[in-house]
Predict the 3D structure of the following.
Amino acid sequence: MWSCDRIRIPVCGHNRVVIILFTDFGLAGPYTGQMQAILHQQAPGIPVVSLFADLPAFDIEAAAYLLPAHGKGFPPGSVFLCVVDPGVGGARPGVVVQADGRWYVGPNEGLFALVARRAHQASCWQLPQPDGASASFHGRDVFAPVAARLARGGSVPGEAVDPACLDRPGWPDELWRVAYIDHYGNAMTGLRAGAVDPGAQLLIGEQVLPRARTFSDMPAGAAFWYENANALVEIAVNRGRADSLPGIRVGTPVTLQVRS
Amino acid sequence: MWSCDRIRIPVCGHNRVVIILFTDFGLAGPYTGQMQAILHQQAPGIPVVSLFADLPAFDIEAAAYLLPAHGKGFPPGSVFLCVVDPGVGGARPGVVVQADGRWYVGPNEGLFALVARRAHQASCWQLPQPDGASASFHGRDVFAPVAARLARGGSVPGEAVDPACLDRPGWPDELWRVAYIDHYGNAMTGLRAGAVDPGAQLLIGEQVLPRARTFSDMPAGAAFWYENANALVEIAVNRGRADSLPGIRVGTPVTLQVRS
Amino acid sequence: MWSCDRIRIPVCGHNRVVIILFTDFGLAGPYTGQMQAILHQQAPGIPVVSLFADLPAFDIEAAAYLLPAHGKGFPPGSVFLCVVDPGVGGARPGVVVQADGRWYVGPNEGLFALVARRAHQASCWQLPQPDGASASFHGRDVFAPVAARLARGGSVPGEAVDPACLDRPGWPDELWRVAYIDHYGNAMTGLRAGAVDPGAQLLIGEQVLPRARTFSDMPAGAAFWYENANALVEIAVNRGRADSLPGIRVGTPVTLQVRS
């Protein structure tokens, strides 16, 4: 995973499998807990980490761009259980994806489009329509048992299909909008910082924002953009909240400021 | 636990014990973490899952009807640590309940009434009044150590008493009101779907609601009731929020619409 | 850890190490999960508990007084990963602290001042400035790997320094203000109850508050102060919310009411 060269922490010889939850289920309520219970029962001893429980509700596109940015630190064998599923109970198929050695399980409504598009190697399996599952909670009844099975090293259920079915050809390579607002009010975009000239200024709402390396390089109260710890462009205000700037919310477009 | 017949996931031979937290402590703050720390210390290697940390505060009745609905998927040996406890520090006794092979630990103020009433077999033990515990956090100081002990297979502390002490005779078999509003704005009731004719319409506030199988069977924006993944009646709006309908909040009564 | 004498729960012979998270990262978003993933990878089999994820944002002083109050129940060998870090990316050093046998890891901006000041024995090591870390997420990239290493029993990285560098000499021994508001609206102060005469009345805003042993000793709706389960002075209202009293929020001063 991430490493810090100078401190030179020895990483354990065996990379332990971790199951990672990536959902819009919300922090509240029983849904994450019910999935965790299945995972602990069916994959004993394997840690379960909730990475996002509060992805923007039903916003598959935002989730699809956040997933590769947050997944790339995880070692091969990691299992991502991903559910943003407005179509639950309908005909949309469930899939298993293997991309660069990591596993992804969830509904195929676009959620894995960018993971698959950016992978060096990707495979895909389509899960059968479940008979015994509830109509409204496939995360618990379908996808969690599959994730547990993969984490245990079991065989992939379902039928191999062309991973091209994962892509959404109309979706761009970068998502030029706010994809998530965090606890501090920082506005995370779906735009990789590597795709933007470091000297560029960004325009969001009526704000023109310079780039900074990090918070402490800016005066208190100043708005800026920076490359966040997951290599995405993020809008922030040092010791303030970017989401209190006018018009900044999930969905707000970000563009390059063209110099006149 | 839940299974999905067609995918035929092999469940592990040994059902692992899981400790399940079921509280109104809130997601924020140290309380759930302090209980988890005790459990990890005193029951090493046993997973702890927070099922609900945000039950409606002090609403024992709502919790009492949500508990059996959310507990029935768990295998025998599971230990539920349940705390909705407005009377903490007073004279109300703590209890251990064994119902259909599952364990429940918490204050006896009605929380286990429906679990006990609906069980094929129920036993109850009353815990002694604790001497060394804080006056305000029996979840950590009294109930968590007992839950850890039960999860480890230890003997039941306390004195066997008649499980009739758990019931609240005045409480109905179904709770005809909203018991919980989830992250999506869905309004979960304490009413089992099996107790309602599938063709029935429900009346909540001034809304008359038809039944649907699931979200994707309804047009966007339409309100309906359905049997949720825990077999309870739930009020929902496809791609919308039921809690933005007038008057829908925890406590709002639900009734059968009588055809005129 | 905490024990309850009369129930006499046998504590396991081996005190298991637990890693405890103590941050202002918020419950939402990926930050706690990303740290947990590192910890599970690099310290396999060691439980990770989130004690606080919602400390008042950037309020190092409040966190510094809450830390010893919430840490004292944990056994020697416990590892606290503590991040309230408005200066992330700047020149402030990271430290490892050993105080009365417990480990603490995080940025040295005052967070460990009270832990060190109150300890019978304290040692301190300064971490090198990291080269490979992100500029904005040292919790994940610097401090979590160190916490994992300490939990595994590894040697302390960094250079031993005088623990006097941890203190903030201008800070008082007790924090006479609200340091945290919990889910129920209770206002936790940074003031140890043992420092206040049990017969004292406290003044907060325009309220004069008597002491009570616990909630159920007061009539519904009555405001009072009490010694909470972590030995801090807390302002509460029986079956009500202290944070709906006028002017009570994080930062509100509390004083002794002087009898006239």
Remarks:
- Chain C touches chain B through 44 residues (CB under 8 Å).
- Residues 1-14 of chain C have pLDDT under 50 and may be disordered.
- The helical segments of chain C are 31-42, 60-71, 113-118, 138-151.
